[in-house]
């Protein structure tokens, strides 16, 4: 059982949970195991780790564990993450004078080993609701010395998950009021983070970023990196409020009207990759958005609903429903209606390979799949249509859900995220939705079709847009390959 930390700290006590209580007095260093929140600024977990180290007059180190293609991540996701971490490592060592250790392998082995070797007394971790991460933490609690304490800090949600609700919420309407009531307490600015009082004693690690990134990218080359989104904390802040193309500074005005139009991709915030990898804090995004709320109240309210209520609802689902990626995690009414209609005749049945290659009779669906495969991001409205069609075109809901999660996690830059799991579960299993009029295949799950999309936006325009987009990406890739070949020939 976890308990809340009572002691005085710049981090609100509700944001911290004690996963393991060790010695009351820290005698060894503090280690921050960074995982989900990969940033220097606006990071409650790092703020807590530095504060605890300063109170005990001990040094602090940051540890990051690189898994081998975590949950199917490829070059696209791992390249983006590692390029962001390379920048972060330099900045942490320069501004905080804190060493950054990067390990490869299983965290349940590398983190306890590092704690033993460094003589650490406290491990601080950031929070993730995903069951794999929670399982690692449970294992680590068992593997470390009795004298080591382990604190978990929710640095990802604005209202800490366990404070917002202590149960699985039915939908946005049941959690919205709980979060809104707590926002005045938790939606605050961050304290300034300075270097710790004590310097790290011992060798400072050196990471060969160039070779590491090259190796990881080559292993996951079947899903290549994208060029439209620059990784890192500075790029994230630029995407939020930069003068050239910042969301709050140049594109916010029409957010509430444009965000559901797939032909207006710039109507979206473009922040999801940065939020997923923790290169920017949702709390910073909300804090800055509130500053311009008087100018664009409707747009800011729509943005905060997505950023806070919907994102934190997704974390709530994945935390309190361990089967968050399975039909068993659906509500009983949804499971029943889906199973009742499993044997219904389908107009088309496609294999996973046909879907992955966008080989269906629906040009709109094919366009959305190609946008995801080549661009690394599918428009949010299209994601709903895309997943519902997979339900319609596969042998049953179990296969449909597995394929949608597989494709989402493989190609989306922000795959393997609670919002991604909930998006697939909403579309196929009715999570956070209600029962609708019963129909073949879907049962009472909300239905979407081509004709409905045509009424909402210019379908032919979207298909043409994706065709141009994919053509441009393939052309650039071809030019890059030619340039690489020319370099090789010059070097011979």
UniProtKB/TrEMBL annotation:
UniProt xrefs under Gene3D superfamilies: 1.25.40.80, DNA Cyclobutane Dipyrimidine Photolyase, subunit A, domain 3 (1.10.579.10), HUPs (3.40.50.620)
Source superkingdom: Eukaryota
Domain Photolyase/cryptochrome alpha/beta residues, every copy: 28-161
Please name the GO terms of the biological process aspect recorded for this protein, alphabetically: photoreactive repair; UV protection
Provide the alphabetized UniProt keywords. Answer: DNA damage, DNA repair, DNA-binding, FAD, Flavoprotein, Lyase
Q: What does the record give under GO molecular function?
A: deoxyribodipyrimidine photo-lyase activity; DNA binding
Q: What does this protein do?
A: Involved in repair of UV radiation-induced DNA damage. Catalyzes the light-dependent monomerization (300-600 nm) of cyclobutylpyrimidine dimers (CPDs), which are formed between adjacent bases on the same DNA strand upon exposure to ultraviolet radiation. Required for plant survival in the presence of UV-B light. Not involved in the repair of (6-4) photoproducts.
Protein name (database record):
Deoxyribodipyrimidine photo-lyase
Tell me the organism's taxonomic lineage: Eukaryota, Viridiplantae, Streptophyta, Embryophyta, Tracheophyta
């Amino acid at each position: 059982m976890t308990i809340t930390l009572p002691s005085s700290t710049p981090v609100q006590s509700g944001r911290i949970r004690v996963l393991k209580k060790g010695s009351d007095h820290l005698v060894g260093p503090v280690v921050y195991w960074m995982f989900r929140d990969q940033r220097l600024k606006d990071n409650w977990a790092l703020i807590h780790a530095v504060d605890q180290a300063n109170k005990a007059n001990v040094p602090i180190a940051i540890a990051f564990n690189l898994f081998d293609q975590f949950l199917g991540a490829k070059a696209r996701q791992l390249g983006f993450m590692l390029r962001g971490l390379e920048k972060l490592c330099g900045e942490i060592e320069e501004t905080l004078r804190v060493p950054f250790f990067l390990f490869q392998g299983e965290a349940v082995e590398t983190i306890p080993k590092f704690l033993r070797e460094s003589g650490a007394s406290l491990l601080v971790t950031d929070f993730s609701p995903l069951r794999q991460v929670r399982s690692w933490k449970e294992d680590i609690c068992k593997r470390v010395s009795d004298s080591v304490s382990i604190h978990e800090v929710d640095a990802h949600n604005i209202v800490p998950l366990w404070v917002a609700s202590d149960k699985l919420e039915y939908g946005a309407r049941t959690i919205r009021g709980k979060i809104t009531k707590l926002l005045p307490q938790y939606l605050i600015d961050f304290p300034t983070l300075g270097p710790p009082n004590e310097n790290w004693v011992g060798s400072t690690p050196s990471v060969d970023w160039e070779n590491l990134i090259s190796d990881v990218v080559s292993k996951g080359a079947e899903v290549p990196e994208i060029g439209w989104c620059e990784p890192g904390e500075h790029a994230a802040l630029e995407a939020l409020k930069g003068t050239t193309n910042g969301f709050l500074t140049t594109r916010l005005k029409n957010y509430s009207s444009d965000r559901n139009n797939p032909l207006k991709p710039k109507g979206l915030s473009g922040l999801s990759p940065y939020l997923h990898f923790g290169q920017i804090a949702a709390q910073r995004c909300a804090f800055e958005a509130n500053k311009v709320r008087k100018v664009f109240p409707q747009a800011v309210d729509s943005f905060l609903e997505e950023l806070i209520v919907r994102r934190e609802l997704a974390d709530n689902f994945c935390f309190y429903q361990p089967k968050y990626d399975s039909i068993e995690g659906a509500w009983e009414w949804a499971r029943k209606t889906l199973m009742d209609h499993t044997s219904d005749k389908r107009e088309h049945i496609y294999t996973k390979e046909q879907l992955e290659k966008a080989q269906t009779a629906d040009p709109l669906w094919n366009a959305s799949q190609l946008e995801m495969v080549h661009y690394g991001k599918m428009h949010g409205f299209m994601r709903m249509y895309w997943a519902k069609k997979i339900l319609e075109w596969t042998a049953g809901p179990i296969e449909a859900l597995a394929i949608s999660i597989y494709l989402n996690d493989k190609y989306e830059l922000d795959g393997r995220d609670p919002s991604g799991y909930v998006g697939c579960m909403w579309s196929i299993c009715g999570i956070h939705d209600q029962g609708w009029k019963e129909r073949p295949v879907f049962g009472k799950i909300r239905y979407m079709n081509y004709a409905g999309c045509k009424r909402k936006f210019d379908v032919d325009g979207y298909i043409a847009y994706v065709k141009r987009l994919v053509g441009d990406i393939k052309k650039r890739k071809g030019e890059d390959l030619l340039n690489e070949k020319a370099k090789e020939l010059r070097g011979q």
